[in-house]
Amino acid sequence: MVSALTNDQFWWHLSRASGIVAWVLVSAATAWGILLSTRLLKPYDRPAWLLDLHRWLGWLSVSTIALHIASLVADTFEPQWGWAEVMIPMNTSWKPGPVAWGIVAMYIFGAVQLSSLFMKKLPKSVWRSIHMTSYAGCAVTTVHAVTAGTDRSNPIYSALAVALSVLLLALTGIRILYAGKPRTREVVRRTPTPQDSEV
Fold first, then answer.
1. Cα separation, 112 vs 129, whole angstroms
2. Is position 192 within any domain?
């Protein structure tokens, strides 16, 4: 393990791997949120389980994003990364536009998770508005991954990009259609009893 840590390319490989994992996790967290809000799996789902998994995926996503950023700063193989370069958009000489998309995504998902911590103290409309930015977060994450990712020429990486994009576009479309439908409560009818006529 010590020899791995001293390898000049260790942090570079870790940053690449953690970036890909973070991309998958934010997509999964968003997809699970859509399943939770639309109840697409009803009657087979369990809302409490879906909510716990959604929260867990969200925090795991933010943790992996943090690892991605920290490993870039720790990297000596590509030494242009400092805290200013990874925290301020358009502040790097290496692909400033694509990198800026990743920084914007980081702030979006950070805000989403932070608002979840204070969900009970925030007005519901405010929390909902912040939470809905996760759709934009997924979009800019994908743009960042495709334009800044050094593995984009890999066919497996390209297939992953297509699969995640199609999945999220399909679920987002379903979410938009679902939002326009009226929500009705199911009325349970029962047979009148003799006691009802006495009231």
1. 9
2. no
